[in-house]
């Protein structure tokens, strides 16, 4: 018997089992992988930051006793009717079509209970959504599906979508399985086709045009509505500066962890910047223009906890928006549907084929039977609870840093656990006074 | 008849006055003088009034119009009648880019030429152009009718959905998934009605019809080269 030692099987880092599986899948099907959600790769994030807390030089506020305000007003620059929110956490734009009607209803109910706003998506505004949302932001998208002046006027704010973090520079895709009669009717398209949403607006190009487009929207709505401009995390300094120049009341900045209903995996994972890398350049643009706190900044993309909220605010944001986290709060990817996820070849927490319309949780689907699994009233209660917890967490941290308003959190309250996070967030590496990239180092 | 001079009246006041007209107003005729290329004139109207703009307009004249009839005696800048819902908009001169973009309904008549992307993403609007139209017109057009008495530029009807395109003159090139289609009797009738309502001196039989081949409606890798 040969006793020569054998080399153990060795997986390649470059050609890992996951990469090889994708090569085989591509070879088999001839189409790139489409999925929902945001970037799944590990990127520097809020986890890489820590708060310093109070010390001799800064004293804390008493938890549960001393007030720590969480209110925020969005749209104070030009709009006659700014939006007043009780908490600095909003619900990001997600479409009826990508989500079921009851899921949209739950988002509206939950946001209203928590004292915050929710947002429409590609596909227009539904009566259920308007009816259940005390404060509703109406997205103005390149596709203009369902766009009309009546809905513009019954919105509380208008969000001009230039891009989103999951796919800066990309349009949308709603596959035919989800184009039911109602969805098709709202979008003026044949039933069952793959619906493409344009990647750029049909009637303006560039910031000079955008300024005129905003003028038109303000004229149509009597200058009442705050006008947000949403951009993906591509060139946050310049995009923020140009949005301000174009006349925005609010800039919404969505990093690459921000989710989408469906797009190419290669796009999600390889285009755009992490949320953490986007905030400071955007804030600097506002500060350079003398517009910080005058034009509000809403940050989204991977916000999960009150700590994430506090860190985004400390870096200069006025509020945050959540999308994926809100869906999880509603019940998306819940382990109670493990058997159904297994039948789809996936697991709870990993399921992302939202475009296929077979969501076991009944949230990202238009299938009537699956939709019955989701109770919008219960979903709203869960979302309200989750928003309340995040707010309490954010307040806890703010009080520990001695802040009577969460907006008083500042970069000086933070340190970073990695060189990358320190450089991106512009805060010192823990244990040092070194901010990589500053002062020539 | 009400006359407003844009040289001395702020745009906000002009639009507010027009937008305030109720559906049963007696003040149905309005004239706007000295537009001088101003943007967003007569936007968001929602009453059966007739507004005549004496001169040329900038961007988005008559944007999101409902019910009203808006006439521009000069030329119109980009995005005229964008997202129109209903009513009628008539441009005596030429129209710049994106005329009638994303319009959901109503009739847009351009008596001169229209530039590129005329009828882009149209969703039910009817557009009649007496002259020529530029490249990429009716891109991703979903529904409605685009009628062109003159010629069409490159890539007409690229990625078209269910909109109907009628062109009397030459088409420089068709976009992806746009093909010439048979002109059936029902199309002749649609075209005859549109020509008559627009006051165009042309016969339906002189036109060719273009529409979607519907090959790109559901993604297939064999069609990837067309995207």
TrEMBL record, chain A:
Pfam families: Glu_synthase. Keywords: Oxidoreductase. InterPro entries: Aldolase_TIM, GltB, GltB_archl_type, Glu_synthdom. Residues 76-331, 355-403 form the Glutamate synthase domain. GO terms for biological process: glutamate biosynthetic process. The keyword Oxidoreductase applies. One of its GO terms (molecular function) is glutamate synthase activity. Belongs to the glutamate synthase family. This is N-methylglutamate synthase subunit C.
UniProtKB/TrEMBL annotation, chain B:
GO terms for molecular function: oxidoreductase activity. Transmembrane segments: none annotated. SUPFAM superfamilies: Alpha subunit of glutamate synthase, C-terminal domain. This is Glutamate synthase domain-containing protein 3. It comes from Paracoccus versutus (Thiobacillus versutus). The lineage of its organism: Bacteria, Pseudomonadati, Pseudomonadota, Alphaproteobacteria, Rhodobacterales.
């Amino acid at each position: 018997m040969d006793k020569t030692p054998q080399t153990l099987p060795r997986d390649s880092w470059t050609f890992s089992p996951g990469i090889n599986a994708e090569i085989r899948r591509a070879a088999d099907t001839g189409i790139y992988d489409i999925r929902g959600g945001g970037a799944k790769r590990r990127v520097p994030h809020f986890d890489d930051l820590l708060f310093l807390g109070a010390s001799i030089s800064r004293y804390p506020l008493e938890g549960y006793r001393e007030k720590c305000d969480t209110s925020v007003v969005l749209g104070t620059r030009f709009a006659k009717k700014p939006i007043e929110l009780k908490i600095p956490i909003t619900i990001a734009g997600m479409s009826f079509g990508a989500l079921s009607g009851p899921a949209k209803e739950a988002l509206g109910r939950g946001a209203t209970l928590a004292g915050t706003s929710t947002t429409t998506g590609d596909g227009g505004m539904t009566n259920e959504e308007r009816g259940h949302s005390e404060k509703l932001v109406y997205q103005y998208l390149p596709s203009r599906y369902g766009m009309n002046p009546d809905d513009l006027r019954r919105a509380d704010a208008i969000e001009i979508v230039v891009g989103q973090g999951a796919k800066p520079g990309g349009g949308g895709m709603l596959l035919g399985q989800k184009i039911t009669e109602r969805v098709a009717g709202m979008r003026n398209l044949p039933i069952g086709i793959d619906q493409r949403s344009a990647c750029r607006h049909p009637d303006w190009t560039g910031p000079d045009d955008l300024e005129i487009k905003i003028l038109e929207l303000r004229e149509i709505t009597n200058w009442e509505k705050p006008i947000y401009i949403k951009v993906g995390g591509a060139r946050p300094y310049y995009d923020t500066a140009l949005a301000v120049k174009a006349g925005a009341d609010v800039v919404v900045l969505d990093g690459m962890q921000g989710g989408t209903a469906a797009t190419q995996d290669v796009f999600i994972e390889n285009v755009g910047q992490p949320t953490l890398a986007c905030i400071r350049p955007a804030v600097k643009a506002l500060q350079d223009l003398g517009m910080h706190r005058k034009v509000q900044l809403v940050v989204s993309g991977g916000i999960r906890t009150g700590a994430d909220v506090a860190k985004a605010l400390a870096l200069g944001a006025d509020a945050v928006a959540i999308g994926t986290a809100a869906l999880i709060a509603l019940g998306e990817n819940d382990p109670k549907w493990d058997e159904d996820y297994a039948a789809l070849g996936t697991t709870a927490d990993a399921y992302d084929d939202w475009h296929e319309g077979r969501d076991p949780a009944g949230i990202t689907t238009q299938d009537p039977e699956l939709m019955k699994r989701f109770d919008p009233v219960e979903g709203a209660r869960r979302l309200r609870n989750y928003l309340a917890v995040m707010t309490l967490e954010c307040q806890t941290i703010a009080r520990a840093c001695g802040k009577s308003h969460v907006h008083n959190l500042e970069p000086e309250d933070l340190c970073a656990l990695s060189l990358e996070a320190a450089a991106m967030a512009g805060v010192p590496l823990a244990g040092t006074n070194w901010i990589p990239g500053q002062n020539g180092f | 008849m009400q006359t407003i001079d844009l040289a001395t009246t702020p745009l906000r006041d002009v639009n507010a006055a027009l937008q305030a007209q109720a559906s049963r107003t007696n003040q149905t005729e309005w004239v706007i003088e000295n537009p001088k290329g101003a943007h967003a004139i007569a936007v968001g109207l929602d009453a059966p009034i007739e507004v005549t703009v004496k001169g040329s307009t900038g961007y988005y004249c008559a944007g999101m119009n409902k019910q009203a009839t808006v006439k521009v005696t000069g030329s119109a800048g980009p995005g005229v009648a964008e997202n129109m819902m209903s009513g009628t908009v008539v441009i005596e001169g030429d129209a710049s880019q994106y005329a009638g973009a994303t319009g959901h309904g109503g009739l847009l008549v351009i008596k001169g030429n229209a530039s590129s992307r005329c009828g882009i993403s149209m969703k039910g609007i009817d557009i009649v152009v007496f002259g020529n139209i530029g490249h990429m017109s009716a891109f991703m057009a979903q529904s409605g009718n685009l009628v062109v008495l003159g010629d069409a530029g490159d890539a007409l009807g690229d990625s078209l959905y269910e909109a109907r395109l009628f062109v009397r003159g030459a088409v420089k090139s068709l976009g992806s998934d746009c093909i010439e289609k048979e002109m059936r009797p029902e199309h002749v009738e649609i075209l005859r009605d549109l020509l008559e309502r627009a006051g165009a001196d042309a016969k339906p039989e002189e036109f060719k019809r273009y529409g979607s081949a519907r090959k790109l409606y559901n993604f297939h890798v064999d069609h990837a080269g067309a995207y």
